[in-house]
């Protein structure tokens, strides 16, 4: 006589077609029996429980199934079919614990579930201690922002080249994802370059402060390649740009049209020299202001000069660089702020910059 049949007389009848309440009661009692003795059961006994419980557990209340799933998720010899049944459940309270940590669920089942279930299931799966490239390919392809952030921050996750390409592309619109990817030890130098090329300066600086020293060195090297400089904070050479601006002024062509053309062509030095000439603010001061972390100085300069939004937007894109994009939300926020900014306020600020050059 097996442990299960000894506990509940008439079990075979209950399993085959008993009253739902009796089935739920049997599921609860047999589950408890298994959990109490799991450490002593051999594979044959586990298989026996598996066959019985897969028929009975679906009749148990949701809270009871969720509790069972939580407790089974910690067992290396949990009944495989039962675990699979619960892991496929649409209720994340039931499936979640097993997807997060059950050692019983194999790779094939994880990929199957990741391919068809919702974001809650993917989020739970992204917390597993080990994630293979095949699995993360599905998670990255189907996951929302929270899912991919969680996976990217999981040190036990491995990503394929395609997976990393997708993550880096998404990171261009997600600063949190950029920082989590930048902290990964398995990120190659080329991938780090792609990641930083698509990020804005404030995110780069934040990343620099949170990574390990060796990654800081790598970031400096990559930024040297991206910006064409050899040292952070190195001053740009504006000599040729000044000559170009002087020529434009002499020919009566220095104005918004020239500025817009420079900005759209990502000619930084010429754009800064033009702004300096148009505002009367020293070129070094304009450079420090425009190359900072915020768009505000661009908005202020643009408003003080009466520039059109198209020119101001081009200056913002110049700040980001040719390989990066701003999110539509950021651009719209800048546009609204530019529209609301009073010319008189902008002119006062620019006047302050003229008299206080060391900003």
Explain this structure to me?
- It is built from 24 helices and no strands.
- The protein is mainly α and 359 residues long.
- Mean pLDDT is 87; it is low at 229-233.
- Helix segment tally: 24
Q: Whole-number radius of gyration? A: 31 Å
Number of strands: 0
What percent strand? under 5%
Order of helices and strands: HHHHHHHHHHHHHHHHHHHHHHHH
Largest sheet: none
Taking the alpha carbons of the first and last residues, their distance comes to 87 Å
Percent in helix: 55-70%
Structural class: mainly alpha
Shape: elongated
Give the uncertain stretches in residue-range form. 229-233
Q: What is the residue-averaged pLDDT?
A: 87
Write the layout of secondary structure elements.
Layout: H1 3-7, H2 11-17, H3 20-37, H4 43-56, H5 62-72, H6 80-87, H7 92-101, H8 107-116, H9 119-125, H10 133-142, H11 145-152, H12 161-171, H13 175-182, H14 189-197, H15 201-210, H16 213-227, H17 239-250, H18 256-264, H19 268-279, H20 283-290, H21 296-305, H22 309-320, H23 328-340, H24 343-355
How would you summarize this macromolecular structure in one to three sentences?
The protein has 359 residues and is mainly alpha-helical.
Which features does this protein show?
359 residues; mainly alpha; 24 helices; 70% helix
């Amino acid at each position: 006589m097996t442990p299960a049949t000894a506990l509940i007389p008439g079990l075979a009848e209950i399993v085959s077609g008993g009253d739902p309440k009796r089935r739920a009661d049997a599921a609860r009692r047999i589950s408890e029996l298994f959990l109490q003795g799991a450490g002593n059961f051999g594979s044959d006994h586990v298989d026996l429980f598996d066959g019985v419980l897969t028929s009975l557990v679906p009749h148990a209340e949701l809270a009871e199934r969720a509790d069972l799933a939580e407790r089974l998720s910690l067992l290396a010899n949990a009944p495989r079919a039962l675990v699979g049944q619960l892991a496929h459940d649409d209720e994340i309270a039931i499936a979640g614990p097993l997807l997060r940590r059950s050692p019983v669920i194999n790779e094939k089942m994880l990929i199957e579930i990741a391919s068809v279930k919702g974001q809650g299931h993917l989020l739970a799966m992204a917390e597993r201690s080990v994630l293979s490239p095949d699995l993360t390919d599905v998670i990255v392809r189907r996951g929302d922002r929270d899912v991919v952030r969680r996976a990217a921050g999981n040190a036990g996750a491995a990503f394929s080249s395609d997976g990393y390409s997708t993550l880096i592309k998404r990171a261009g619109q997600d600063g949190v994802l950029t920082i989590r990817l930048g902290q990964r030890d398995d990120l190659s130098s080329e991938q780090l370059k792609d990641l930083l090329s698509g990020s804005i300066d404030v995110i780069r600086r934040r990343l620099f402060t949170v990574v390990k020293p060796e990654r800081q060195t790598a970031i400096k090297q990559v930024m040297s390649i991206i910006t064409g400089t050899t040292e952070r904070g190195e001053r740009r050479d504006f000599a040729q740009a000044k000559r170009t601006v002087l020529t434009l002024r002499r020919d009566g062509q220095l104005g918004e049209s020239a500025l817009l053309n420079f900005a759209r062509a990502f000619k930084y030095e010429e754009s800064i020299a033009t702004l300096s000439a148009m505002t009367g603010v020293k070129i070094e001061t304009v450079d420090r202001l425009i190359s900072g972390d915020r768009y505000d100085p661009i908005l202020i300069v643009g408003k003080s000069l009466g520039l059109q939004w198209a020119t101001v937007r081009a200056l913002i894109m110049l700040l980001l660089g040719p390989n990066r994009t701003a999110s539509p939300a950021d651009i719209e926020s800048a546009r609204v702020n530019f529209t609301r900014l009073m010319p008189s306020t902008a002119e006062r600020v620019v006047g302050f910059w003229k008299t206080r050059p060391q900003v």
